[in-house]
Structures are given as C-alpha cells and as structure tokens.
C-alpha cells in the first residue's frame, strides 16, 4: 500500500486524531473514510457530534431538575400557545432521536460489510 504525505497545522492534526480516537479507528482509516466512503457513511461524523451534543444537553437538563427539586418554585400558568409549541418541539426532538438511531444502525451495518474488491468478488460467488 502506498503512503501519501499531508501537511496539517497542529490544531488540524489534533482534531483529526481526536475524531479518529472517538470513533475507535486509526487516523488513516478516518481519512480514507472521508475521502472514499459512500455519501451516507460520512454522516457518521455528524451523528457522533449530534449524539455528543444531545448527551451534553441531557446532562444539563438533569442538573436543572436536581436544582429544581432542591428549591421548588411555584408553577406559573402556561399560556396554551406555549404549551402547543412545546409539544411540537418535543415531537421534533423525538423524531430526531429516532432518525439518529436509524442512522447509527445503517452506519453500523455499512461498517460491518467488508470493503474493496475482495469483498465484491466474494459477494459475487
């Protein structure tokens, strides 16, 4: 297999190493995936970032709930329009979480499939 050199700043190199480590793959694998993977597979990076952000938001919500339990405030009356808006937001978040789960499954299936000519030849038998 041939090697190619690539000039990166220390910051860029650190970012790539961090992303590769987070995905549990080598730096070379990450770069190959970014350059040559089918379009759907590159979504894995976005899914990982969204998952990280959702986790951080969930943690923040739990902290707010704990604070609220320690210092309960009187519940203000919610205007009906606000309640309907919150329900739409909740449904959208639920739909997004389902889509993220489906994307993760597709990515896992694609990663599990062997790549290259040898896998193509073995599937053709």
What does this structure look like?
The protein is mainly α. The protein contains 5 helices and no strands. 74% of the residues lie in helices and 0% in strands. It starts with 9 loop residues before the first helix and ends with a helix. The mean pLDDT is 77. It is elongated. It comes from Geomonas diazotrophica. Pfam families: DUF6290. This is Ribbon-helix-helix protein CopG domain-containing protein.
Features:
5 helices; 125 residues; mainly alpha
Strand content: under 5%
Enumerate how many helices there are, as a single number.
5
The percentage helix is over 70%
* Unreliable sequence segments: none
Rg from Cα: 22 Å
| Series of secondary-structure elements, N-terminal to C-terminal | HHHHH
Structural class: mainly alpha
Pfam family, one: DUF6290
Organism: Geomonas diazotrophica
Protein name: Ribbon-helix-helix protein CopG domain-containing protein
Topology:
Layout: H1 10-23, H2 27-36, H3 43-70, H4 80-112, H5 117-124
Helix pairs in contact: 1-2, 3-4
Organism: Geomonas diazotrophica
Protein name: Ribbon-helix-helix protein CopG domain-containing protein
InterPro entries: DUF6290 (IPR046257)
């Amino acid at each position: 297999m041939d090697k190619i050199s690539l000039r990166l700043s220390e910051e860029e190199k650190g970012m790539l190493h961090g992303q590769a480590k987070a995905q549990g793959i080598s730096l070379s694998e990450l770069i190959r995936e970014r350059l040559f993977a089918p379009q759907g597979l590159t979504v894995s990076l976005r899914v990982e970032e969204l998952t990280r952000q959702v986790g951080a938001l969930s943690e923040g919500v739990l902290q707010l709930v704990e604070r609220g339990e320690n210092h309960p405030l009187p519940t203000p009356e919610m205007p009906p329009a606000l309640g309907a808006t919150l329900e739409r937001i909740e449904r959208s978040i639920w739909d997004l979480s389902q889509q993220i789960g489906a994307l993760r499954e597709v990515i896992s299936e694609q990663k599990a499939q062997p790549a290259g000519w040898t896998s193509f030849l073995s599937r053709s038998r």
